[in-house]
Amino acid sequence: MAETVTPTVDDPPPASSTRRERRGWYIYDWANSAFQTTVITVFLGPFLTTVAELAAGCELGADSCDGYVHPLGIRVAAGSYYPYLISLSVFLTVFVLPVIGAIADRSAHKKRLLGGAAFTGAGATIAMAFVTGDRYLLGGALFLVANISFGAAVVVYHSFLPQLGGPDERDGISSRGWAIGYLGGGLLLALNLVAITLLDDGDNPQRTLDLARWSIVSAGVWWAVFTLVPLRWMREHPSEAALAGGGGNVVTDGFRQLGRTMREIKAYPLTLFFLLAFLVYNDGIQTVITLASQYGTEELRLEQSTLIITILLVQFLAFGGALSLGALARRIGAWKTVLLSLVLWTVVIIAAFRLPAEAPVPFMVLGAGIGLVLGGSQALSRSLFSQLIPVGKEGEYYGFYEISDKGTSWLGPLAFGLVFQLTASYRVGLVSLLIFFVVGFLLLAAVPIRRAIVAAGNTPPRVL
Questions:
Q1: How far apart are CA 272 and CA 255, in angstroms?
Q2: How far apart are CA 138 and CA 35, in angstroms?
Q3: Residues 175-217: pLDDT tens digits?
Q4: Rounded CA gap, 458 and 158, in Å?
Q5: Torsion angle, CA of 358/362/364/367, rounded to 10 degrees?
Q6: What is the dihedral of CA 347, 353, 355, 356, to 10 degrees?
Q7: What's the pTM?
Q8: Is residue 64 classed as helix, strand or coil in its secondary structure?
């Protein structure tokens, strides 16, 4: 029987993988988290919005802009350009990710797929260096390529997890990867913020814009450089379908396999039920992350510096939080630990509702709480899902998983926005998100997890 892994990097590996290979897998999380943190969370939205405003004829540094841009002849308010890009990106990703997963399952060279998607995304991010002046269309196109490539690479990356360890080891492996990712993303963001603090005099909006652009570029360089490590250290683990492919066209075979899986997936209703639970509670998590800054500025009237410090606090504490919940999962099981994390998320929402305005310290304390529960709930959901995937279909099923992660992220913001429109209160809007955590908890608690794992043809871990 395999020895249960504790959350330390130097634990002995199982026979199916080496310590070097696992470390390579962890490093990819370190590599791509820079894109999520530096680009998506902090810099890209304000940067592309400013570029669109310039294209709309607004002055750089103006307090407000009512101008419009016309991508493909469509009249779009400059301030709405970036949110529309996000929506378009999510829409396209829904179609791309399952296909990429199916191709990965049929390929004997998944590392090439990982590298191709990662370098494409990193290259598009680095090319943001050319988004100067009013080139909002170039910036939008590069963002679409980068964000879709990011999701595609994540699907391939996740599909390696079941091959890196047995049922009793995956919670620890996933938690360490997620923790190291938060550490890498936080480190680059901190370096960029230090550079901006030293170089930005605050009186030159063009310099501020240039610094934001080069911060985005730095994330692409970071992503590309550190992706070289997993491509060097990881090994291929081709499935039986890949080995029996007979040299056929892997793309065509991938589409065919996806069609078969879409027809056969109903044979695993408990796996689908878990995905439904994940869809609900993860939407609440993503909405809290997305709207925390807006809540802090609009409702709590906090300074931008407070928000930036809190973002960094979340990043670095999520490192310890992921490892801590991973250690807890070793004792009580991943399923129970995720359920506990949803209870803690409920406490976070209630605490956020009661936060006083213009009080940065309580907001930072709440950010610390989010950091401690954030990484673990996501990492353990990933490893728990790995137990529910039929052997040889890891890529396809993680494609559906990523759709549940990203493709429905409009539900929480929609609920928040509707409640705010009816009540004119950000606090009530925030409390409305409790429904996602309560319903998600009830759905996940209703999953007979051991039976679901057996139904997928896998061996359950000793502790669930």
A1: 21
A2: 18
A3: 999 899 999 999 999 999 899 888 887 778 889 899 999 999 9
A4: 17
A5: -120
A6: -160
A7: 0.82
A8: coil
